[in-house]
Each structure stands twice: as structure tokens, then as C-alpha cells.
Amino acid sequence: MSRILHNRMRASLKKSTQWTVVDKRAVAFSVWTGRSVLLHKPIDTSHVQRRRYGMLVARAVRGVLKIRYLLLGGAVGGGMTLNKKYSEWKDGLPDMGWLNELLPDNDKWDQFTTTLIEAKEKISDQLQIDPRLRDMGIARASELREWLSQRYEDAVAAAAVTNSSSLEQPAKIVNNLQSKPQPVAQRSIDDNSSYEKRVHVLQEEVLALQARYQRELQRLEQENRELRQQNMLLRQGRQPSTRKMKRSLIDMYSAVLDELSGWDAGETDRLPRVVVVGDQSAGKTSVLEMIAQARIFPRGAGEMCTRAPVKVTLSEGPYHVAQFRDSAREFDLNKESDLADLRKEVELRMRNSVRGGRTVSSEVISMAVKGPGLHRMVLVDLPGVISTQTVDMASDTRDAIKQMTMKYMDNPNAIILCIQDGSVDAERSNVTDLVSSCDPSGKRTIFVLTKVDLAEENLANPNRIRRILEGKLFPMKALGYYAVVTGRSRKDDSIQNIREYEERFFRSSKLFKDGLVTPSQVTTRNLSLAVADCFWRMVRASVEQQADAFKAMRFNLETEWKNTFPRQRELDRDELFERARAELLDQSAELSAVAANVWELRLQHALWQAAAERVFGNIYLPAAATAHADVDKFNTAVDIKLREWAEAELPTTSIRAGREALREEFTDLMSRAQDSDPVYEPVKKEAVEEALRRHQWEDRAQDVLRVLQLNALQDRCVSSRQDWDAAVTLMDSAVKERLDLVNKELKDLTGPGLKERWLYWQASSDEQARRGEVRGELERLGVARPALAYDEVVAVRDNLRRRGIDVDNDYIRETWKPVYLRNFLLRAQTRARDCRKSFYLYSQQNGNGKECCEVVMFWRVQQTLRTTANALRQQIGNREANRLDRELREVLDEMAADPELKKKLLSGRRVELAEELKRVRQVQEKLEEFIEALNKEK
Q1: Do 849 and 841 form a contact (C-beta atoms < 8 A)?
Q2: Which among 525, 509, 528, 529 is positioned nearest to 517, based on CA atoms?
Q3: Report field, pTM of the whole predicted structure over 0.85
Q4: CB neighbours of 262 closer than 8 A, spacing ≥ 6?
């Protein structure tokens, strides 16, 4: 049934669907043709026509809208494509954003110019700069400003004139510019174009001038800021930092020679230098001054002026100045005041170098002279060779000068400038033989004959001068022979006057007129040129060889260090001293961290060591000897002696003990230091000892200690068993220590005992045997008094005489002193041990008992020393440790400035090898730097 219903529904649905399709086709046909398919008759189509017109309008509108969408879509798509292409092109460009950070905007640029003007006014009002720089800068800025203003006004005026002329008189301008007249239209066009070009050129020129003006202002502003900073530093007492300038070639070479000065390096110190040698008063110093073009050395009439080698480094510079190696002051050689100061400084340095009664010294005085026209070289002026020494000279002066001169001339690369006085007989020369022995072939000797003007006046035969300058008179050879005039016996003559006089003399001299000498052999100018040329030839020929020698020496020293000290750093003497200083200062700072109980125990021990002899020998024994068995008398004597001791000696003794405790604590701190190098110990020990020697306790500390000690001695009552036992222990140990000393004294007097004689085969002398008999007789006497009565002495003497021993009374009394002291100490030791158990009885009697008065005395002393130790400990922690630390720093600073003391304290092969390595490296590095600069100059 369900199946039948389902088929019927499908059939009806299909039929209805077909009819729907037929109806839609019929309606469409009817509308199009105007006829009804179903009824076969016309239908009304008026509304259909209206609908057709509406559909046509709708289609037209839709087409227009579609074209708009196409246009808009194309525009948008093209824009997006163009934007993408632009983004790709922009990404391919380099990033120029950094220019935005460098270039200021317009507002900042306007503010910058305004700020410059304001800064100029403020700087001119507040900053006091160098007047020369200020005047130069202001003048230059004013000149630029006026020139810029004038150019700008000229440009504006030219533009105005050109504009008006082009409008009013065009023909006149054209005739000035062109040879042939042109049409009016063409002339106006050309005039306008030329006017625009000229205005454009003038504008560019004005902009360039403005930029140049801004740069000049910036430069001046920068210089003003630097000068202002230097001015502020000078007002604060600080030295402004100097810029590191490039050193000249001769300065670098001079630095190498300074490193080698005072160092006996044997074959390695063979660097070239010009050695000026000659007899005394031969004119060595004058020749050097003529070469340096300044009177830089002190002068004396017939007196030795040059007492030490003076190394002068000559170099060319814009200003004529001189400066010592170890000083920052520059002497202006154009000022007479500076020249006088320079000569005084040279004389002072020479006198300071001569110590211990010597006349000459080997210490080198280094000086640098710079000036225009100076030839670069290094000269060493030596003391003049003498033939006779006066009574005011040291006994070894002549030999010392000769050895010094030979040492410098023995250098195979040294240029010997042999100075000979032409006004004296050649036979009186002492230096020519020395020069001939050092340089027999004359390959590095230059002979200079001075005072030729005097020689020409005094000598009747000018051929003698010719023979000298030809090298035929003296038994020596030389590279060249020169004749010079270095003065007119006037101390106030300047170098320029002497040079003019020298040139006038040689122009009018018979030597020239007769053709005895050539022009190249005269004047200090030619001499300086020849010496400088010879010096640099020698330097270029030998400096690399010397660098190789130092390189080999460095390799040998480094090998020795690695084999001898493989696990230690190469620390020179200065570095070792700085490490010792740091360790010592750290240990000094640890004094404040020492515990209070440690300080008090150490101070008590030091106090007792300082006071034990005084307490035992001057208080206890005299009081016991005076009182015998009378306790009240003993206590009275003890009170008096303790008070005298506390008022007179105890404060001073306490301060000495405090200083000793400081020394012991320092010693313990240094011994406990971990990883401390043993090479430091001499420095640390010497510094501590010197600081403690200088350290003085405060004066008021004695008064404070005196009051505290007197108050402590007033107490006579022992309050605790612990204090009682401590006093008994102190007495027992003191008595035992003194008993050991007495037994030793008796043994020395009476000889060895029975044990030593039988076991160690020791025998007594006759004197010791006699002393032994006297001692035995005195002990059998059984007297307990410190002094023997006359009857007792006679009895002992008679008993000894019966045994054949003859002694006098003084001999017996002398022997009785150690015997009595030994017996007394034995009894005191017994009493001390018995009193250890008597504190209960003492406390029951409230301190009024008389059985153990000796223990009470030692307790009073001990209590006083404890109080003193506590006061000293507080004073050390509060005041003395800091004062000692300051004194220790002062001592270390003084030691750091004393190279001889450091050399004495820091010694040994390790230190010497490190020092030698350091110096060799420095010389090698400076030589290599010099060679590099020399090769660049080539």
C-alpha cells in the first residue's frame, strides 16, 4: 500500500513540474508575440511595452555602473602595483637616517648661531686667555666678518645696479659685454640669464663664506673652551695634561743613551756619541756652546768648571730652549735671565754630584737644547785633562779624569772631538797622546784648534798653524782638522757677536790670504756640519748591530730566568717594593682587628719583662733584707718603694713595653702572612723598625698612666681565689727564674758539681776550688741574714786557714752574697707554695693577715700591670695604631724615593736578573723604535 502511494505521489509531482514548465514557456511566448498560446487570441500588451522600456533603461544603467567599477578597480590595482614598486625601490636605497642625527634642524641652527654670539660675550668677560691668542683670534674673526659683510653688500649692490641698468640702459651693458650690438629682445634675454647666473654665483659664494665663518667660530670656540679648562686646572693647582707630541729622531736616540747612562754593559754599550775631550781651559765648553748657539755652561777664571760629564742633545726646533732630562722647566735661551738660571742649575747639579770629598764625578747630567738651525747630534762634555793637581783637589783627581776620558773614548763608535788650544805650545798638550792611543788610525777623530786669533798674533811662523791643520805636527791622525775662534776674552759677548767676529777674522786672516787653510776648515759653522754628518754616518752604520747585541742579551737573560726561577714572575726592584708596601700596609690595617684579650696578654707579658728586674731587685729583695722577719716593716718598705717606682719609672717603662708589644704583634702578623715572598722581608722589617723608632707616644699618656697606676697600687686586698692563685704563680715563677740565675752564678764561681765531674769529666780550677771551700764553710755557718757579722767572718776565715786556705774578709763577704741569695730564694719558693693553700685563712682575716705579705705584694704589682695593659690596649686601638700607620706610610714613601736603600734591601740574583732584563728590554724597544723611525726618514 505504501509502495502504491509513493508511486502516485511521484507521478503527480512529475506532472505538476511539467505543467509549470509549459506555463512559463507559454507566458513568455505570449508576451513576446502578443498572442495567447492557450486561448489563441490577442492579449493586452501595453503594460508589457512599458516593462520592456524599463528593462532597457535598467540594462543601460547596469552597463554604466559596470564601466565605473572597471575604471575604479583598474585605478586601485595600478596604484597598489605602483606602491609596491616604490616600496621595493625605496628598500633598495642605503639607509641615510644617520644624517638626521648629525644635521640640526632650522631652529637648532638659529639657536646655535645665537649661542655662539652669547658664548663669545661670556667668554670674553669671564675667561682670561693668552692675550696673543685672543688678539689673533679676534683680529681674524673681525677680518672675516668685515670681508663677509663687504662681499655681501657688494653682491646686493651689484644685483641692484644690474637690475636697474637692464631696465633703463640695456644697450650700455650690452656694449660693455659684447663687441657687436644685438637686437633688443635678444639683449634682454641675455641680460636676464647673465643676471641670474651672477646672482646664483654670488649666493653660492656667500653661503661658502658663511660656512667658512662658522667653522672659524667653532674652532675659536673650541680653543677658548680648552684654554678655559686649563685656566680652571691652574687655579685649582693642577697641571693640565700635555698632548703627546711626536718625538724627533735625535730625542729618541738620546733616550736610548739615557737608559744606558750609569750602566756598565760592556760590549753592548757601544752606541755612537760625540765625546768632547781636551786639556783644561782649552776651549771645550766654548766650542760646545758655539755649536749649541747659547752660553749654557758656567765659567770660571782659571778654575775647573766641568766636574761631571754633561750630555747635550741638540735638535732643531722653532724656539731656542733648553731643558734637563729630569725637569719639566724650559729655559728660554733668548732671555738673559733664563740663561743665568740655566748656568746656576748646571753648576748646582755638578756640585751635588761631587760628594765624599771628590773633585770630579761620573754621574751624567743630561740636557736637551732645541733651536732653529741646530744640527742634530749628541755631545758629551768631559772634564778637562790636567797635568798637575792642586792642593784643594782630591788625591785621585788626575787619574779619575783620565780613566773617565779613556772610558768614553774606548767606545769604538764614539766620535772624538779633540780640542787643542792654539794659543799655547803644542808640546804642552796632554790629550793628544790619549786620543792617539784610543784611535791610532784616526777614523773617528776630529781635531779642533781653538783660539786661532791669539795663535796668529803670538806665533811668528804661521806655517806652524798650517802644519797643525794638515796633521803633520801632532803624532795623531784625524778625519778632519778645523780652526775656530770661540771668543774675544769677553764674558758678556753673545754667540752672535762671537760668530760675526769669527767670520770677520777668517776673512781678514793671513791664513786665508796666504792660502794656508781652505775655507771648509774654519768656523764653528763648518765644524758643526762636519760633526753632525760624521755622527749620523756612525749611527746608521752601527745602530742595527747594537740592537742585535741587545736582542741576544735579552734572549740569554730570559733563558737564565726560565731555568733558575721557572715559576716566578719577572718583578723588578720597584715592583717588588710596591708589593712589599701593599702587604705591609694590609698587615698594619689588621692591627685594629686584633682581639682585646690578645692585646692584653701580650702587653702584660711585655710589661712584666720590662719591670721584673726592677720589682725583684729594687723592691722585693731590699724590702725583705731590711725587714728580716718583721712583716710590718716589710709592708712599709714595699709601699714606699712601689710608690717611688710608680711615680718615677713605671709610666716610661710601660710606654716602652707598649712599643715592644706593637713590634712583636707586627712581627707575628708578618710571620702569619700567607703566600708572602721571602724577598720582601728585609723591606718590611726595616720599614717597621724605622716607623717604631719614629713613633712617639703621646705625652699626656704618661700622666694618665701615672694616675691609674698609683690608684691601682693603693689596693691591698685580694678579693678572689683566682687573683690569689695568679699572684702565687707570678711569685713562684719570678723566684724560680731568679734562682736559676743565682745557681748559674754560683756554678761559675765554685766550679762544676759532683754530677758534672763524674759524668762529664769536668774539673774545677784552683780559684773555683777555693770558692767552693768558702761556700761550704758559709753554708755550714747557717746564717739567714743578708750581711755577716764581724765575728762570723772571722770564724769562717779561721776555719779555712786551718785547712790551708788563706782568704781575706772581703773575699768571704763577696762569696756570701750569692750564697745568701740562693738560700733566701729557696725559702721564698717554699713560702710561695705554702701560701697557695692559705687564701681561706687570708679571707677570714679580711686581708689583715701577715703570713703571706709577699704574695700580696706580687698581687699589687700584677694588678697594676693589668690596669696598665688595659689602658695601653685602649690607647693603641684609639690613637697609636693610626699614628703608627701614618708614620709607616711616610717611611715607605721615603724608602720608595731612595733607590740606594731599595737596592740594599732588595738584593740577590733574582732581583738583579729581573732588573737587568727590564733594562735590556727597555733599551731594545727604544732601539727598535729608533731604527724604525730612522728607516722612515731614509
Answers
A1: yes
A2: 509
A3: no
A4: 362, 363, 364
